[in-house]
Amino acid sequence: MSTRAASRPVGTVTRGTTNPNRLRRMDRWIAAVHGAELRRTAHPVAVDLGYGAAPWTAVELLQRLRTAAPLTRVVGVEIEPARVAAARPYTREGLVFRHGGFEVPIAGRPSLIRAANVLRQYEEGEVAAVWELLRARLAPADPASGSRGGLLVEGTCDEIGRRHVWVALGPEGPRTVTFATRLGSLERPSDLAERLPKALIHRNVPGEPVHAFLRDFDRAWAAAAPYASYGARQRWIRTVRRLTADWPVTDGPARWRQGEVTVAWGALAPRR
User: Cα(272)–Cα(270) distance, rounded to whole angstroms?
Assistant: First the structure.
């Protein structure tokens, strides 16, 4: 796979923190939700943007996506040249590493760009421009074939991947926000607030939609306390079912059982 002609990479070097299995929740969601789109594509390419100081997340992304779409290839992209050099011994069939940033230096348009824990260090005002740059690199939609185009997944998680919140964006713009957690570690849903992506984390204040959502989430969780005797999963499912009365939840029980809930972006988008 050839690289695109590019000058200086766009972006700044991140801390590079990474751990094996850290992004498992995001990967499994992508495989479930975006797998059909990957299978529809003749030569699907996924980009692990900013994989960090070690290549674990790119290796795992390839393994997990191939369970849903066996022809998928993964390109790990890092802005720090030393990290690219350290990752290259892990190159294998379907997996390569490139030096670059938000310009995404690969040939063609990827079917997926995953940017996890990358924008955390940026200012909130910089997020929209980065999203626009990355969305412009995605494979376009093709209504004739039923394709919605490529997917950008951008979000934040804790160091071992127990709590994670991400935004999914298509070529047309933001689509959804997903909250995912290891249910046994959760005291209340608003514990996930500290993992909100940069576009939302400073908006968790009264008067903003995401604050109202987390407030209602906690109230629904409290109301579902009697179901805790059946386990945290049953309490979570009951909680999310209650949320659907007032919030546009876009998924169903099959995903809720995984400790997830996905809400339409428009319901949580910051007020300007």
Answer: 6
